[in-house]
Design brief:
single chain, 265 residues, alpha+beta, 7-stranded antiparallel β-sheet, 3-stranded antiparallel β-sheet, globular, binds zinc ion
C-alpha cells in the first residue's frame, strides 16, 4: 500500500485560506483533548454494550498531522479562536459519559465555534486541496466567514465514539444498497469521545439512526450558545461509516484518503 504523504512543502498554498505561506502542522486531535487508557475504554465500551475494540486498535495513539495550513489559520483561526471550544466539549462529553453512563446529558457550548473547529480540521486534512471541489469550497467559505450560517446543502452529525482509533477521512462516498439511497459524500473526524461527520446528502441506514444531526443549531452569531445532547445509549458500529456494512458500499480514492496514525515504531 502506498505510504500516505502528510508532509507538504515548507512553503505552499494553505489548505484553508489559500494564501502562499510557510506551512505548519495541523494536529488531530488538537492538544488538550482528554487522553484515555485502553483499560478505561475497555470498561466503557463493555458497560455501554459497544463493540469490543480490536487488538489492532490498541496501537493507534499518536494522532494524525498534516503540514497543510498557514500559521494564521493554524494558530489564530483554529488554535486560539476555535479549538478551546472543541477541547472543552470533549472534556465535558467524557465527563458526561463517565458519570452518567446510560443517561443523556446536555452540554452547553458555543456551537458555532465548535462546528468551525471541526470543519477547520477537516479542511486541514490532505495536501494541496484548497477549495478542491464544491464540497471543500462550501466548508472553506463557512469556516472563514464567522457570521455565516451552516451551508444549506451540507449536513453535520456527531455521535459518542468510545474507541481509540483516530480517523480522519475526506470526500468518501457511501451508498446503502438494500434501501436504495442516493450516494452520500462525506468527510469524517473520529477521536474519543466524539465522532463528527460532514456530508452532502442525508445519512441513511440503521447506524445513521444512532447519530445526531446538528447543522440546524448553527447561527450567524459566533458567540451564541446551544445545548448538544450526549447520548451514550446510541453508538454506531466502531468502523461506521468508513467501512462498508453488509448492505452498503463505500468508495475511497486518493482524494478520499483516510488517515490512521501509524503505531509507535
Ligand atoms: Zn491559511
Amino acid at each position: 500500500m502506498e505510504r500516505l504523504q502528510t508532509r507538504g512543502p515548507e512553503i505552499g498554498i494553505c489548505n484553508i485560506c489559500g494564501l502562499t505561506e510557510r506551512l505548519t502542522d495541523d494536529h488531530v486531535p488538537p492538544k488538550g483533548v482528554p487522553l484515555v487508557g485502553q483499560v478505561y475504554l475497555d470498561r466503557l465500551s463493555e458497560a455501554l454494550g459497544a463493540q469490543k475494540p480490536t487488538r489492532q486498535a490498541r496501537l493507534f495513539q499518536r494522532g494524525v498531522k498534516y503540514r497543510s495550513i498557514c500559521a494564521k489559520c493554524n494558530n489564530e483561526r483554529l488554535g486560539q479562536a476555535l479549538d478551546p471550544t472543541l477541547v472543552q466539549f470533549c472534556k465535558d462529553a467524557k465527563a458526561a459519559i463517565t458519570e452518567r453512563l446510560y443517561l443523556p446529558s446536555d452540554i452547553r457550548v458555543q456551537q458555532n465555534k465548535l462546528f468551525r473547529s471541526v470543519i477547520g480540521h477537516l479542511l486541514a486534512h490532505g495536501l494541496g486541496t484548497h477549495k478542491a471541489g464544491q464540497f471543500i469550497e462550501r466548508k472553506t467559505e463557512y469556516f472563514l466567514k464567522l457570521d455565516q450560517p451552516f451551508p444549506e446543502d451540507l449536513r453535520l452529525y456527531y455521535w459518542v465514539y468510545p474507541y481509540k482509533p483516530q480517523i480522519v477521512g475526506r470526500a468518501l462516498a457511501r451508498k446503502e444498497l438494500i434501501i436504495g439511497t442516493d450516494v452520500v459524500i462525506f468527510s469524517l473526524l473520529k477521536f474519543f469521545p466524539i465522532a463528527w461527520l460532514c456530508s452532502i446528502g442525508d445519512l441513511e441506514g440503521p447506524d445513521a439512526a444512532q447519530v445526531t444531526r446538528v447543522d440546524h443549531l448553527a447561527t450567524p452569531n459566533i458567540e451564541d450558545f446551544a445545548h448538544l445532547r450526549i447520548n451514550p445509549s446510541y453508538i454506531p458500529a466502531a468502523h461506521w461509516p468508513e467501512a462498508p456494512g453488509g448492505n452498503s458500499v463505500v468508495l475511497h480514492n486518493r482524494l478520499g484518503t483516510i488517515a490512521i496514525p501509524r503505531p509507535p515504531q
